[in-house]
Amino acid sequence: MKKLFSLLALIKDYKLPAFLNVLLNLLSVVFGLFSLGMLAPFLNLIFLKTDEEYADYLAEVPETISLGAINAELVMDHFYYFMAELIVRNPEGGKMNALLLICILIVVFIFLKNITRYFSYFFLATVRTGVMRDLRNKVFNKVVGLPISYFNEEKKGDIMSRMTNDVQEVEWTIMTSLEMMFRDPFSIVVYLITLVMISPELTLFVVLILPVSGYIVGSIGKSLKKTSDDGQEQMGGLVAMMEETISGLRIIKAFTAEKLTRFKFNNQNESYTQLMIKMYRKRDLASPVSEFLGVLILVFVIWYGGRLILIDDQSALSASQFIVYIVIFTQVIPPVKSFTVAIYNVQKGRASLDRIDKILLAENVITDPISPVSKPTFTDKVEYKDIRFKYQKDEVLKGVSLNVNKGEMIALVGPSGSGKSTLADLLPRFYDISEGQINIDGISTKNIKVQELRSLIGMVTQQSILFNDTIKGNILVGNPEASQTEIEEAAKVANAHDFILNLPGGYNYNVGDGGAKLSGGQKQRLSIARAILNNPPILILDEATSSLDTESEKLVQEALDMLMKSRTSIVIAHRLSTIVNADKIYVLEHGKVIESGTHIELIKNSKMYKKLYELQSFN
User: Fold this and answer.
1) pLDDT (0 to 100) of residue 139
2) Fewer CB within 10 Å: C terminus or N terminus of the chain?
3) Could you tell me the pLDDT band of residue 544, with boundaries at 50, 70 and 90?
């Protein structure tokens, strides 16, 4: 229930519409009860009374109604007195007038019941949609704020499933049940109080047998929650498989793996289908089980109440009261039934809440310092001091130390897995170091606000990451306030302006999913234009040209040279010919710096660098 209450806590921002929804629901129940209450005078005064008996109601004037002494019996006494007076004063048409009045009152109360019920839905719409919007925002904001390490351990498709399917499940199961959770218990209580006023003995009998049905419903509900939990997990697996298939479709087709892929998906889909059949069958038990139990209890009530009237001549329960009792009791069954369905839905929705909580409660290890040091600019140098880092068990970096002075270009080279990209990712705190310290101008990066730290750093990676947006929108990511002139200037420096103008719509051309409508070189130049517009003092280039053809590489390298002018650059190089002019080159192997120096120094004195350079020169 804690998870349910945490969801309901979101309603606090919608106190007024939530209060109006509850109030109008309560009024709807009260008006519905009044419309049923009209049956009692209808039966008593129209069908069950002789003319002489009407005079008994007029023999004594009821006490005056006051706010301090108002009760149901006094109100009914006044109503009976008024109706009897109406009938006695007009012997010929009095009963018809009384019948007409009761019919009008029933219509009025039914109208009030339905109009208040409609407006309760009217205000509930604001609460329901608002709470779900807030929950989606909360989940999305949490995902955006989580460290990159979180996504290394989770399936992207499963995270997407939690953000979409599970949130939608919460809306359809729990949020649709909110009204039933508040209105129906009140309805049940109001009707039971009324039944107690009519016949305490008969109502006690009802209350004693109701827990039996509650136990049966609760037992099935617990089973449903587990099945639903398994179902949501499998749906997450399906979404993950679909996402991976779409992303890797080129490889699947290249290796003619369509049959294997279909087989795997069909198997998992069949498993999910069978689980859903099982869950729906359990859920669909809610309505027939609750209805059968309700009718069973009703039969017991008819039997027990009829027995009271037939056996005990002095019974306080009259035949007309018993009929009204049965009618009101039948109105208890629908809210009990819908409340039972609501319990089922909440059990089903809790499984989705559990999965959503895996995101909301995930620890964000990359946090701002308690007392951050302001660092709006970069003025001196970047220092890596004895850095150690591991993703899980094995250390990736083992005591790496290096300096990057302002305006310098340093290069990181070495075989795959030596720790080059990891070293670069530690500077903007995509991950936090295990041991050691990284300083910018003598200040530890852990003592600077994350957003302020990353605003000092720009990145161009091997894989050009573009969004399904216009060219303009992609360039503006780092500086959304930039003017069109500034965008075009950045594109010109990145050697992108000419090809952009040749596209339909120019800067308003949509690049497609991941930039699919552009070539590799074009995507990379847009990434460079984005970095130029952001204008960071520190630049990280992670093998920015390694996946390009010769012509594209030349254009991109020219753009990179322009980008690195007057900036401090850390370059991860695959093609060593691009870093021969670096101020210092660090050669890494197995997480350690094994050689360092300029290109000329390393060619003369090193083994690893010289070997790598000669291999590339020979090729």
Assistant:
1) 86
2) C
3) low
Q: Please, are residues 466 and 515 in contact by the beta-carbon 8 Å criterion?
A: yes
Least confident of 214-228, 378-392, 485-499: 214-228
DSSP 383-397: EEEEEEEESSSSEEE
HSE at residue 613, side-chain half, CA atoms within 13 A, is 20
The closest alpha carbon to 233, from 140, 137, 354, 366, belongs to 354
Strand-pairing partners, residue 280, are none
Partners of 437 in beta bridges? 385
Q: Is the pLDDT of residue 49 over 60?
A: no
| Sequence-ordered alpha helix ranges (H) in 431-549 | 450-454, 471-475, 484-493, 497-501, 520-534
CA dist list (Å): 613 to 339, 414, 417, 585, 601:
75, 11, 18, 12, 13
Q: Say whether 144 sits in a helix, a strand or coil.
A: helix
In which band, very low, low, confident or very high, does the pLDDT at 385 lie, cut at 50, 70 and 90?
very high
What is the rounded distance in angstroms from the CA atom of residue 79 to the CA atom of residue 57?
10
* Phi then psi dihedrals of residue 403, to 5 deg: -125, 145
At 306, give phi and psi (nearest 5°): -60, -35
Q: List domains and CATH numbers for the chain.
A: 2-360 (1.20.1560.10), 381-618 (3.40.50.300)
The candidate with the shortest Cα–Cα distance to 152, out of 302, 335, 378, 362, is: 362
How many Å apart are CA 89 and CA 250, to the nearest integer? 93
Distance (Å) of CA 349 to CA 168, 219, 235, 343: 10, 17, 14, 10
- State the sign of the Cα–Cα–Cα–Cα dihedral 282, 283, 285, 286: positive
**DSSP conformation letters of 332-347:** HHHHHHHHHHHHHHHH
Residue 89, classified by CB atoms within 10 Å of its CB into exposed (0-12), middle (13-18) or buried (19+), is: exposed
Q: Which of 298-302, 406-410, 542-546 has the lowest mean pLDDT?
A: 542-546
* Euclidean distance between CA atoms 468 and 465, whole angstroms: 10
DSSP tally for the chain: helices H, then strands E: 24, 10
The pTM score is 0.71
**Per-residue pLDDT for 4 more than 60?**
no
Average pLDDT over residues 324-338: 74
Q: Which of 174-178, 236-240, 489-493, 562-566 has the lowest mean pLDDT?
A: 174-178
Count of beta carbons in the 10 Å neighbourhood of residue 8: 15
The alpha carbons of the chain give a radius of gyration, in whole angstroms, of 38
Structure tokens at 615: 């291999």
pLDDT of residue 64: 62
Supply 328's token pair. Answer: 């009101």
Q: Which of 9-23, 96-110, 222-236 has the lowest mean pLDDT?
A: 222-236
Q: How many residues does the chain have?
A: 619
What's the pLDDT tens digit per position in 426-435?
Answer: 998 888 888 8
> Strands of 592-597's sheet, edge to edge?
457-461, 538-542, 568-572, 409-413, 584-589, 592-597
- Please name which of 29, 43, 35, 36 lies closest in space to residue 80, comparing C-alpha atoms: 43
pLDDT for residue 58 is more than 70 = no
